[in-house]
Design a protein that fits this description.
The chain is of the alpha/beta class. It contains 25 helices and 27 strands.
């Protein structure tokens, strides 16, 4: 192949050499005849892929190579006659559309008056190398030994072609030195929009930049985030893939695999591609390919009986009638893709019906058409294969031959039609040029009798006309207005495939509104009415976030529940959002709800503590009543009834102060809690301290010369109680003045809750209050401990010692429990310490006395108490 290309390049060099030096050497080395020829004042050419297979000649360069054969054939056992001849009736319709357009223009007196268009139509075999030969044949002319291209202006002004982007790239590069404009009807590669590389290229089909943008919108619309891509081995496939990757960057769509159908079809390579498609979790496949190379691939695909894949077709094959047969529907039914906007060409159907073998007995293309449609050869054809049965040549073209007879809504044919008219209108504007007002140097016009291609290109760039209600023009890149129909392959009434329009993409619309889809009219792969799901990982529901898997694409992820205090309220959240300070996440992690406000209320715990506190207060009052009733009995009098009444009164207040800790904290309750508690307990311990001193003094006063009791009379006892309590009052007053306790919201200890608590204001003052109570208790304990072994049946010092021991133990245990308890349990611990210490004092100090008073009254005598019995 490289040797042939070298020979062709050498031929091109000869063509570009001045005519006066090589005029005798302008000889065609091998003829390349056109399929149709018509003379005219202005000659244009058309290149169409009338076949999609070719037989390469022997290129050993030792003798003149034979012509390239475009109609490579297969075994007659093949059922599909399209495959048998590799002849493309659809492309033949395109070529006939060009002929029809030229004939219409020549018969139109208002367009190109007094001038006619001529044409030469060549076959490119849908292959770049053959397209190159066709381009050279276009330039030189067929079967001419001396080409007029070697001197003077070109007899050829423009080319309609090519179909594939790879072929157009080759042809456009050959035409570039000669500045011959080329209008493509089917080459959509974005690379061809580069004016620095392809300055003479135009097209009436949108660039792939818009097609890949439309496909990207389509994938996102149906939430297909995990897709495969299969492309052909050519510029069209490569640039389309690059454009799609560029459009998908920054979106949620990932490419699962990128596979390439080899240019020279290889069945083993195709099998590898099919295996990957079958096993991949991606159920949506985007295919950038031409129908020629896709046909053998789909044949192998169907042999493997692979189903369940949603095909996304590029415009190159989405409306190909080659795949409209019923045998394709189980595998390709539901295919969706963007096709070229359709149009209506009046008279096309009748014109196609006139193309019959007997009318063109020497044209092999017409006979090949008959062979492809009916599987027979006409007796009037020359060189027909004997493998096919004979036919009369009078067979009637039927509607089911859609590849050829699809004239109700042609797409590529309509592009060919517009391309021919674009050249005609450009030539019309050229011949209408007024002398002295032209666009060329010195305001000159083109010489009508010697028009150069570059002069036609100037008018072609600025042409603008209306055809069948559509405005046609070209932008600076030679591209036309971007617009597509969204095509869906649905089952027809006879089991064949019908191409149904289910939407459109208009690139001229504002961003975000280009794609319009009629979702309810779409049939999906497998004849399903629901959209196929194609994702690497299932969507993360609200309440979860995506965690990308290491080493895998972004579309492959795990769903991780949001941490407490964070939410995600939408599907596929990348991260979870923290709730505001006073809010917390619900159980599902989908919304922020107000935090639970917690405090020691009158719930089960609060009511229990309330009942215990009230019971303790009532019990204390009952003991007080008993003592008051039996105030004249020895056991009450011996134990200093006045101090006993003070202790019982202060214990009652201690029980009742626990009630202040229950309920929602307020400014007043916070200040009263600790002050009442500290003062009442200080009063109680001060009374016990006074009693301890009295007991200790009473037993030591019996010693000769000891008159200590005169310093501990009732008045002195009151002074001691008042003084000790006053110290606590002063501390509390300083506390309330400097930094009083206040209600606060604690959201740190338990982040899911707002704990309403009383902040102590000053931690130093709080611990000073508790420390002072502890100091009094320790002093009582030490004094009572010294007097515990003094004589007497009822030595109260023993009970004071034990009561202080319990009191100190309770409050020592309170400190760590208070610090570590969460929320409302902190307050509960404090209440429990108050109640426990109060009950300990009450029972230790007064239970033995009440037992004697109420149960053993016979022991309630002075002698018994003094131990004289």
């Amino acid at each position: 192949m490289s040797r042939l290309a070298h020979s062709l390049f050498h031929l091109l060099a000869l063509l570009l050499t001045p005519a006066w030096t090589l005029e005798e050497q302008c000889i065609l080395q091998s003829p390349f005849e056109p399929g149709f020829v018509a003379e005219g004042d202005f000659v244009i050419s058309g290149i169409f892929p009338l076949h999609y297979n070719m037989e390469m000649p022997d290129l050993n360069c030792t003798y003149k190579p034979p012509p390239v054969q475009c109609n490579g054939k297969q075994d007659i056992s093949e059922v599909n006659f399209f495959s048998l001849y590799r002849f493309d009736p659809r492309a033949f319709r395109w070529a006939l559309t060009m002929r029809l357009a030229v004939e219409e223009i020549n018969s139109n007196n208002s367009l190109l008056p007094n001038h006619t268009l001529g044409y030469k139509i060549f076959d490119s075999c849908a292959y770049p190398l053959t397209g190159q030969r066709a381009a050279l044949a276009v330039i030189n002319g067929a079967e001419e030994h001396r080409s007029p291209m070697c001197a003077g202006a070109a007899p050829l002004l423009a080319i309609i072609g090519e179909s594939g982007s790879a072929q157009s790239i080759v042809v456009s590069r050959i035409l570039q030195p000669l500045r011959i404009p080329m209008i493509s009807y089917f080459s959509s590669c974005a690379c061809l929009g580069d004016r620095t590389k392809f300055p003479t290229f135009f097209r009436v089909i949108p660039s792939d930049d818009y097609q890949v943008k439309a496909i990207a919108h389509l994938l996102q619309h149906f939430n297909w985030t995990w897709v495969g891509v299969v492309r052909g081995d050519h510029e069209y496939g490569r640039f389309a893939l690059q454009g799609l990757l560029r459009e998908l960057s920054g979106t949620r769509v990932c490419i699962a695999y990128q596979l390439m159908i080899p240019l020279l079809y290889n069945r083993q390579k195709a099998q590898e591609i099919i295996d990957i498609m079958r096993t991949s979790t991606a159920k949506v496949v985007v295919v950038f390919s031409a129908e020629g190379e896709l046909t053998p691939f789909l044949r192998d695909y169907m042999e493997q009986n692979v189903t369940g894949i949603q095909w996304i077709a590029s415009e190159a094959w989405v409306t190909s009638a080659v795949f409209a047969g019923s045998q394709y529907y189980p595998y390709l039914g539901g295919t969706i893709g963007f096709g070229i906007r359709k149009g209506y060409i009046p008279g096309l159907r009748d014109y196609l019906m006139t193309v019959l073998p007997q009318r063109y007995p020497s044209n092999p293309l017409v006979h090949e058409l008959w062979g492809a449609l009916y599987g027979c050869f006409s007796s009037s054809s020359t060189g027909s294969t004997s493998q096919l049965p004979p036919c009369t040549g009078h067979e009637t073209l039927r509607q089911q031959h859609a590849a050829y007879m699809n004239t109700s809504s042609p797409r590529i044919s309509y592009n060919v039609y517009k391309a021919v008219y674009a050249i005609a209108y450009s030539l019309h504007n050229l011949i209408q040029c007024e002398a002295g007002k032209g666009p060329f140097p010195n305001s000159s016009c083109a010489d009508i009798n010697n028009v150069y291609p570059w002069q036609l290109q100037h008018y072609l760039q600025d042409v603008s006309f209306n055809i069948l209600g559509e405005e046609v023009n070209f932008d600076d890149k030679g591209d036309s207005i971007p617009s597509y129909d969204l095509i869906n392959w649905q089952r027809g009434s006879e089991g064949n495939i019908e191409f149904i329009n289910v939407g459109m993409f208009d690139g001229s619309n504002e961003a975000g509104k280009e794609l319009i889809i009629q979702d309810g009219t779409i049939t999906w792969a497998g004849h399903q009415s629901k959209v196929l799901v194609s994702v690497c990982s299932d969507s993360c529901p609200p309440g979860y976030r995506k965690a990308v898997r290491l080493g895998e694409p972004l579309c492959c992820f795990d769903c991780i529940p949001c941490d407490s205090g964070k939410i995600s309220n939408e599907t596929d959240s990348i991260d979870c959002i923290s709730c505001p300070e006073d809010f917390w996440s619900n159980v599902d992690g989908t919304e922020c709800i107000p935090k639970v406000v917690e405090f020691l209320s009158h719930d089960a715990m609060g009511l229990t503590l309330t009942v215990i506190a009230v019971f303790g207060a009532c019990l204390t009052v009952s003991i007080l009543a008993v003592f008051f009733h039996f105030r004249n009995t020895p056991i009450v009098r011996v134990n200093n009834s006045e101090l006993s009444f003070f202790i019982l009164l202060s214990l009652t207040l201690c029980f009742l102060c626990a009630l202040v800790f229950i309920g929602e904290p307020t400014s007043w309750s916070c200040m009263l809690r600790h002050t009442i508690f500290s003062i009442t307990f200080s009063l109680c311990i001060s009374c016990i301290l006074g009693k301890t001193l009295v007991v200790l003094a009473a037993f030591t006063a019996t010693r000769p010369g000891n008159n200590v009791m005169k310093w501990l009379g009732p008045r002195q006892q009151r002074v001691i109680i008042f003084s000790c309590t006053l110290v606590q009052v002063v501390i509390c007053a300083a506390w309330l003045i400097s930094a009083p306790p206040f209600p606060s919201k604690n959201s740190q200890d338990q982040r899911s809750k707002i704990i309403l608590e009383c902040s102590v204001g000053s931690s130093l003052a709080f611990w000073c209050v508790l420390g002072y109570i502890g100091l009094l208790a320790c002093l009582c304990f030490v004094l009572a401990f010294f007097a515990r072994k003094l004589p007497g049946n009822f030595n109260e010092a023993k009970y004071i010692t034990f009561s202080m021991l319990i009191f100190c133990a309770v409050w020592l245990a309170f400190v760590p429990a208070y610090v570590s308890s969460p929320g409302k349990f902190t307050v509960a611990v404090e209440i429990f310490a108050i109640l426990a210490s109060a009950f300990g004092l009450l029972f230790c100090l007064f239970a033995p006395k009440c037992y004697i008073i109420l149960v053993k009254p016979e022991k309630n005598t002075r002698n018994h108490l003094m131990g004289r019995e």
